[in-house]
Amino acid sequence: MANIGCVDRLNIDFWQDRNVFVTGCTGFLGSWLTKTLILLKANVVGLVRDISGKSFLISSGDLNNITVVRGSVEDYFLLERIINEYEIQSVFHLAAQAIVGTANRGCLSTFETNIKGTWNILEACYRVKTVEQLIIASSDKAYGEQEELPYTEETPLQGANPYDVSKSCADLLANSYFHTYGLPVCVTRCGNFYGGGDLNFNRIIPGTIRSLIRNKVPVIRSDGMYVRDYIYIEDVVFAYLLLAEKMKEDNKIIGQSFNFSCESPITVIDLVKKIISIMGAFNIKPVVKGDAENEIIKQYLSAAKAKKSLGWVPLFSLEEGLTQTINWYKDYFKSQ
User: Among candidates 204, 230, 231, 100, which has minimal Cα distance to 160?
Assistant: First the structure.
């Protein structure tokens, strides 16, 4: 297994032999988080709905190093059984319909997974008293469109489109279970993840890198002027695991939400140009289609609270993260 930079910054004694449940373990973030937990010698139980060749966890063979339960977060009694029978101590709820375009095309299935799935995991963790930390993966999209930027944790949650609404609702459900029942839950809100192992080439970073590796012209769906946060996947893993550790150390952290960001917002066109520069493909110019719909023009986060309360800082700049990512895809396509 490849080295993951944040491992040395985490409390290995905390994680060794810890019973950890990861929903969405075969997704992009789930794969990296699960691989890191394996390195930390945790006992990982992963919930798997679909076996997909696009999963980094599956293609790397690391799925064989955890306990796999087939099913979905829409099945409440399955979640309760898993948490009870495996005496789960830490839960990372990552399972979601995470592709904005897909979510907006099929809002009912999105609401089933992202909202019902969240209240199911909250209720199961409340009912089974072994759980010491529950971390709910939200998104910067939960804030919706705002005039005042960057988003802070005090920014109102006002999603408008189906995906954004599903994340706003999940946040509020988590808050409800903390305030009503004292459930040990925290919520994370991040910008756009990127890194090796993301085989959804509809996303701008892996799609652009693949095009350039194949000497093709990258395509930008929007007008290129949308502004976004991008955060390297290892920094996200570090954020989640550090947060769980801090929840154990300090009860005041429980019930709170945290933004995680490199605080380096960039337009889509400038991001693509940066990838072109790093890859030395200066003769290739992107095609700007300008046909993206129902997307917020500017979204980016302040991570000041996470830095102050948790001592979290990103380990990778945007350029460093992109360089790591490009190298991963070069190796991947060479092996193909």
Answer: 100
